[in-house]
Design a protein that fits this description.
By secondary structure, this protein is an alpha+beta fold. Helices cover 29% and strands 18% of the residues.
């Protein structure tokens, strides 16, 4: 009953989900089901998967810096601010509102 998937509707705000592919606490299949529900309700969303990370994305410096850079990008875009280009390359893939998965460098 408390699962966010039970509250998805066309009125939901844009949603960003960040997931470690090796997450043993929240299996990626659960996130994929949630993404599908967002898509089915025409909710704008991004799904970012860190390929070599588990549940805690801050295990190493590169992943932490990548996560912070991605969050800064989304916050800037949300408020219509200029996006500062990160100086690091991420090991993440992004799926945006059901487009194809692509490697990111920002």
């Amino acid at each position: 009953e408390l699962s966010p998937i039970n509250y998805v509707s066309p009125d939901c705000i844009p949603t960003v989900i960040i997931q470690g592919q090796l997450d043993g606490v929240v299996p990626i299949e659960g996130s994929l089901t949630f993404i599908e529900e967002l898509y089915n309700n025409s909710v704008k969303h991004d799904f970012i998967v860190f390929e070599n990370s588990g549940h805690s994305l801050n295990k190493d410096k590169d992943t932490t810096e990548s996560t912070v850079a991605l969050l800064n990008k989304y916050i800037a875009q949300w408020f219509g601010l200029p996006v500062k280009e990160p100086t690091t390359t991420t090991s993440a893939t992004t799926t945006t509102s059901a487009t194809t998965t692509a490697s990111t460098t920002d």
